[in-house]
Amino acid sequence: MINSLxxxxxxxxxxxxxNTHKFAIEFAGGxxxxxxxxxxxxxHPEFIxxxxxxxxxxxxxxxxxxxxxxxxxxxxEWLFNEYSPQNAWCACLLVEDGxxxxxxxxxxxVRPAEQVKSIQNKRDAEALEAKNxxxxxxxxxxxxxxxxxxxxxxxxxxxxLNQSKHAKILAAIGVENSxxxxxxxxxxxxxxxxxxNPYPARHGILNDVKTAVSMAKVKRTDLTNLRSYAIDNADSxxxxxxxxxxxxADKLWVHIADVACVAAPxxxxxxxxxxxxxxxxxxxxxxxxxxxxxxxxxxxxxxEISPALSIxxxxxxxxxxxxxxxxxxxxxxxxxxxxxxxLLAENADLSALKTAAEKHQKYR
Length: 364
Fold this sequence. Notes:
alpha+beta; 5-stranded mixed β-sheet; 24% strand
């Protein structure tokens, strides 16, 4: 084996000498190394200085050898017609590349055509990905957002919204993979607008989603003869409670928006509400516990007649008596606290409600 061409860790070398257990090998630069036989691969019995520049191999011939195991010499002769040191080295490089072959100890296994195609497709995809990544890096450095780069910007957005811990493109441009830095980069590139609020998404707060909403059909008592008042802040648009008084019957009424009739237990809408727990009031938006279309069905006073859950009772001395609860239909007048205060002197219902409230508050 003296003066043979071998491969050691991917580099060509010459066997200089041999003792009982080891071989002395020499590299192109003159470096000497003692190695065991199992640590190198035999390429050719004749050593020459080989080159990485290889002639085109006739890989079409491999169709006839699919899934066969051949020696390196046989592979070299089939691919390059001659088993020379240079051709053997080039055949070795092809085996190391892994597209058409792989080593089975000192022999070479020829991959089936479909496996070769699969590996090549994967390599082509990786090459395209690398090219696209470089283009995106160039565009970011020039403050350009290109449509072709959108997949990378989606990755950055996920980091900005704390939905992912890593975006390959951020590491490639030397930007820290953190929600803060990712968000600042997207603002700088005008991918996100300055008014965009990232915090709901960062904390897993769900957005409003359009979903079917309908009011369950239940038997309702007609209380439209009562004058029902929904009194709230001046900027409130969706009243959820109202009050009435029936002076003749000496009876007070509290009416509550009948949400249960659109969100029955364990229904799709009930689960929707459970995921959100409550309305979230943000500077730029409101994220609703129930879909906005549910408000249109349930809020009091948005239509001429509103469905409600009504509680009627009498105040006898300091006791609340004769309580009754049922589904109802009511007519609601909406007003602000200031408007209600201004009407107290002239509105008998409001005046009577105020008197009843003060009396019960004093007792409490």
